[in-house]
Amino acid sequence: MVRFMLGRLLRAFITIIAVVTFAFVVLRMSGDPSQVMLGPDAPQDAVDAFRHRWGLDQPLWVQYFAYVRSILTGDFGVSMRDHASALGLVLQRVPATLQLTLPAMALKLFLGIPAGVYAALNRDSTTDRAVILLSVLGFTIPSFVMGLLLVLIFSVMLGVLPSGGQDTWVHGILPTLTLAIGGIGILARFSRSAMIEVLTQHYVRTASAKGMSWRNVVWRHALPNAALPIVTLVGFMVGSLIAGAVVVESIFSWPGIGRLLIVSVSNRDLAVVQCILLVIAATMVVSNLLVDLAYGWLDPRLAARRH
Questions:
Q1: Taking the domain 86-306, which CATH number applies?
Q2: Residues 295 and 302 sit within 8 Å (Cβ to Cβ)
Q3: What is the DSSP string of 231-289?
Q4: pLDDT, tens digit, for every residue of 195-225?
Q5: Which residues are bridge partners to 85 per DSSP?
Q6: Are 248 and 143 in contact (CB under 8 A)?
Q7: Structure pTM?
Q8: Which residue of 64, 83, 128, 194 lies most exposed, with the fewest beta carbons within 10 A?
Q9: Nearest-CA neighbor of 115 among 139, 132, 138, 103?
Q10: Half-sphere exposure (CA, 13 Å, Cβ side) for 281?
Q11: Domain coordinates of the chain in residue numbers?
Q12: Using the 8-state DSSP alphabet, how is residue 84 labeled?
């Protein structure tokens, strides 16, 4: 188990380094921040002074190793736009993003998985067909289209919910639903498929033939085995919570990390963009580690192989 965890930690470290390198190179190739910060008509001496102040006049490899060295010491840089700590700016937006992503994740879990399991247990019924239809509609409609559609219905036509802002908890209903609907559809469809596959296995039929009640067969044999692929999907969803909020926060003017990323990219605020990408990558890595641990708990055979 120790060797397995060390291997996973090494893979996580390599992933973080790859994200850091990719973000660094792409952002430097996307344009000169001095042109955005100072404007296209800025005098050359002001541009040179700006580039010298932020180290942009140095060779790319010098900038890269200086950036990696600063990260290893806990320094994530300073915002060119706000002249404040990049990490501090990101952490200020975390609570707002969690106000959307945590309720959205709860809706995905408590609506998507039960719907998929119920549809599998009632295969080919009207309920099953309805779950399939709604789940396909949920995950095929892009989030920005879903968000605009919800605004059109509930804000413009019915006038019962606000279309943007963060003044009260009511303002979070539409963006939370926008984040959740696609995931609910994916989990419902995936849970249904996993459950149907497990129900056709020999051990399920054997347990039922031995006189075990159908409820115990489902809870003790079918669900634990169907949970393995579902856990993988849930782990991916948890890891992509922040990334998934980028479009939604922009649509609903929600002051979270996603909206900060859009603003920072448009302003070429390198330190803030790199810090947000690192946070997203770290979230993905941690969620994958938790999935690996959950696998060992759900299926002891996997844990035994790792010793």
A1: 1.10.3720.10
A2: yes
A3: HHHHHHHHHTHHHHHHHHHHHTT--SHHHHHHHHHHTT-HHHHHHHHHHHHHHHHHHHH
A4: 888 888 777 777 777 777 777 777 777 787 7
A5: 78
A6: yes
A7: 0.80
A8: 83
A9: 132
A10: 19
A11: 86-306
A12: S
